């Protein structure tokens, strides 16, 4: 039995589906019953637990061969990341109490950095807390995927309507590692079924790296219109993000600065490095279909 958090999202859902497809038993950990039916139909067991309830989470994790944990995405955190600290404390207590056979946790490219991470700071907090698990004889794998290809969802509407894809990763001609969430989910599923001791770090990227110009061209081919990438001047970022409803845009800006300067990158060294198989165009086609529904 494998307990999976975040099943209503892209990564957790992909991991749970991959495990079920391989014939494994899955316990889908949900905050409430509203989305339980679809997972019951897939054959998953359901556990209701929130990240405010360590006892309920421990019950969901107990007796499993492996647990996948992740923080709920928060693109507008408060200064100091109090929500991340609270959730991580609850998760850690639940894992220590439950003692699953192994744990896989979602971090990010750059998660090893101590500063200059912006939004990625939240998963760095998670990494730091879970670093103590191997000493408690709970093998732990830290998953550090590249930039999600699915982030291009925000580019579909402007590209379709104006033929312009706003570019925040700059310079536009630099190729960045990208990965599909389906590939991340498959790697998580594979990892949970393996046996190891201590701590692993697994870096994940797609089959090739892409420039913003290449992504715009691929998006144009899916939309069947010309699409060009256009750099958004950094001086405009704060006002733009605030107009989109982000009260404190500093973490998002700091994260983008980290990518653009090369500070946020894979650590390398002795870490494992996995190459996914999903092409960017495949993801873009699905995003366009999703937007047309």
TrEMBL record:
InterPro entries: Ergot_Alk_Oxidoreductase, NAD(P)-bd_dom, NAD(P)-bd_dom_sf. Residues 6-193 form the NAD(P)-binding domain. It comes from the Bacteria. Gene3D superfamilies: NAD(P)-binding Rossmann-like Domain, UDP-galactose 4-epimerase, domain 1. SUPFAM superfamilies: NAD(P)-binding Rossmann-fold domains. Pfam families: NAD_binding_10. This is NmrA family protein. It comes from Paraburkholderia graminis (strain ATCC 700544 / DSM 17151 / LMG 18924 / NCIMB 13744 / C4D1M).
């Amino acid at each position: 039995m494998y307990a999976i958090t975040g099943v209503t999202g892209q990564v957790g859902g992909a991991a749970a589906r991959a495990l079920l497809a391989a014939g494994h038993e899955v316990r889908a950990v949900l905050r409430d019953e509203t989305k339980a039916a679809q997972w019951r139909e897939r054959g998953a067991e359901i556990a209701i637990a929130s990240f405010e309830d360590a006892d309920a989470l421990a019950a969901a994790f107990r007796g499993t061969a492996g647990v996948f944990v992740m923080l709920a995405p928060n693109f507008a955190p408060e200064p100091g990341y109090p929500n991340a600290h609270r959730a991580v404390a609850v998760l850690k207590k639940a894992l220590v109490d439950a003692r699953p056979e192994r744990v896989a946790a979602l971090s990010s490219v750059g998660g090893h950095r101590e500063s200059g991470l912006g939004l990625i700071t939240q998963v760095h907090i998670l990494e730091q807390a879970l670093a103590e698990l191997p000493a408690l004889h709970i093998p732990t794998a830290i998953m550090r995927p590249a930039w999600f290809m699915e982030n291009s969802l925000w580019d579909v509407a402007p590209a379709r309507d104006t033929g312009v894809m706003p570019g925040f990763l700059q310079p536009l001609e630099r190729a960045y590692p990208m990965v599909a969430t389906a590939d991340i989910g498959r790697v998580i599923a594979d990892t949970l079924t393996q046996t190891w001791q201590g701590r692993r770090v697994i870096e994940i990227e797609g089959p090739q790296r892409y420039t913003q110009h290449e992504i715009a061209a691929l998006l144009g081919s899916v939309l069947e219109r010309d699409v060009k990438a256009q750099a958004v001047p950094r001086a405009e970022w704060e006002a733009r993000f605030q107009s989109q409803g982000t009260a404190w845009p500093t973490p998002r800006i700091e994260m983008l600065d980290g990518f653009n300067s090369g500070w946020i990158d894979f650590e390398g060294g002795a870490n494992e490095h996995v190459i996914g198989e999903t092409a960017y165009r495949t993801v873009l086609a699905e995003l366009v279909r999703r937007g047309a529904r």
